[in-house]
Amino acid sequence: MNESEQTGLAAMRDCWITGGATFDLAPAGWRAIAGGASPDEQERRLLAIAAQALDVALRPAAPTTLKRRPPLPRLVLPILPARFRPLLRAALKHAADARRKTRVAALVASRGFVLHPMDWMPSDQTCPDVYAPWVDWQASVDGERHAPRE
After folding, report:
1. Which of 62, 78, 127, 136 has minimal Cβ neighbours within 10 Å of its Cβ?
2. Contact partners, residue 29, CB within 8 Å, separation at least 6
3. What b/e sequence results for 45-63 when a residue is b if at least 16 CB atoms lie within 10 Å of its CB, and e otherwise?
4. How far is 57 from 78, CA to CA, in rounded Å?
5. What are the domain boundaries of the chain?
């Protein structure tokens, strides 16, 4: 949407706010769509078109500095089954600090599973060793280099 269209859309919005009719202010293409209806229906159609135009035209553009990141590495243990994830999320919610959340992750790892990355991601190297690939992945993504874990 160019500047003149944005200015026209702003004028239409101002007219709607004050209770006026906007049919004459609308772009020609919009008038063709809204024409042939009653004045009230014309305003409703123009309002619908304007709302869609604002939704599409004024989305922020993606930054040009996006970087492709490597995929999250697989861990040696399987992810906790989906039926247990709500219970795990509740346990993580009640674990107030990072140390306690790490203890929950260690408990799950001792039972032969790892947490889903959408539920918990290790933030440092004090997590169970099974999460070492994720810690290294995060460090490489953040540009930090931790000493490799053994």
Report:
1. 62
2. none
3. bbeebbeebeeeeeeeeee
4. 44
5. 3-57, 82-142
Whose tokens are 């859309």? That residue is: 9
Is 88:119 a contact under the CB 8 Å cutoff? Answer: yes
Are residues 134 and 70 in contact, defined by beta-carbon separation less than 8 angstroms? no
Total number of residues shown for the chain: 150
Round to whole Å and give the CA distance between 61 and 6. 17
Q: How far apart are CA 118 and CA 1, in angstroms?
A: 37
Spatial distance between the Cα atoms of 83 and 127, rounded to a whole number of angstroms: 24
Extended beta strands in 1-145, E state: none
pLDDT of residue 76: 95
Give this prediction's pTM.
Answer: 0.53
Residue 19 has a CB neighbour count (10 Å cut-off) of: 6
Between CA 62 and CA 68 the distance in angstroms is 13
The pLDDT tens digits for 2-44 are 777 777 888 888 888 888 888 888 888 888 888 888 988 988 8
